[in-house]
Write a structure and sequence with these properties.
The protein is mainly β. About 10% of the residues lie in helices and about 55% in strands. It has 1 helix and 18 strands. A hairpin with a 6-residue loop joins strand 17 and strand 18.
């Protein structure tokens, strides 16, 4: 199963690297899928190393080097060359760190024109929450507005947030969707918290798949 997966990834990489153009013999082309990953220390991008070789070449050793916030699983790839097409593709894996930025990867081999590719690592997906006001009367009607903001780096929109409450208060909704505007990495939405007739501290918590959760507190008083 693992062998079949790697084969599919490599075949997909050939298409990404060529992008509808004819490669010239003696060249190395790099491509990345996906070209942008989250800087969370675990997200990965597959780096395809495609070599166009002269007829009769059976394999080409390619040395990989990188700069920027990431780690490669290897610094060299042996690329097998097909006798029919005189081309071949190897595979390496880039893993992000927790530092956002740009990773530049180069591939070189003696006698070949080298190639390079860049992968963007973006800030991790994080929720934040705030309440206004942070103290309300415990009369069963007074409300506090809870603002939920999504800061994300994976360009996913909308973000579905699950909201829960503990303590003397009720929410207007237990879920909400945050739409990330085009060209932005941030969006927000609001729900309302209504007091009961009991005093105390209300904790509102938000969670979303792939995001670091958040919470905020509101105090309910008799005055």
């Amino acid at each position: 199963m693992k062998t079949k997966l790697i084969t599919r990834l490599i075949l997909a990489g050939v298409g990404l690297a060529l992008n509808g153009t004819k490669a010239h013999a003696g060249t190395i082309t790099l491509s990345a899928q996906p070209p942008s990953i989250v800087a969370n220390g675990t997200s990965r991008s597959y780096i395809y190393v495609t070599v166009a070789a002269d007829p009769g070449t059976t394999s080409v050793p390619v040395t990989l080097a990188m700069s920027g916030p990431g780690t490669l699983d290897t610094t060299s790839v042996i690329v097998p060359i097909s006798t029919g097409s005189n081309m071949g593709t190897g595979l390496a894996t880039l893993t992000s760190t927790t530092q956002p930025g740009t990773v530049t990867i180069t591939g070189n081999s003696s006698g070949y024109t080298g190639g390079s590719i860049q992968v963007i690592t973006t800030g991790p997906n994080v929720l934040s929450m705030s309440a206004s006001p942070t103290s309300i009367r415990a009369d069963g009607t007074t409300r506090s507005v809870i603002t939920i903001t999504a800061n994300e780096g994976s360009y996913v929109s909308p973000v579905t947030v699950n909201i829960s409450v503990s303590g003397p208060g009720t929410l207007s909704s237990n879920s909400a969707q945050i739409v990330i505007p085009s060209g932005s990495l941030m969006g927000s939405t609001q729900v309302s918290l209504t007091s009961t007739r009991t005093t105390g501290t209300v904790t509102v918590t938000g969670s979303a798949s792939g995001f670091t959760g958040a919470s905020t507190q509101v105090t309910t008083t008799k005055h």
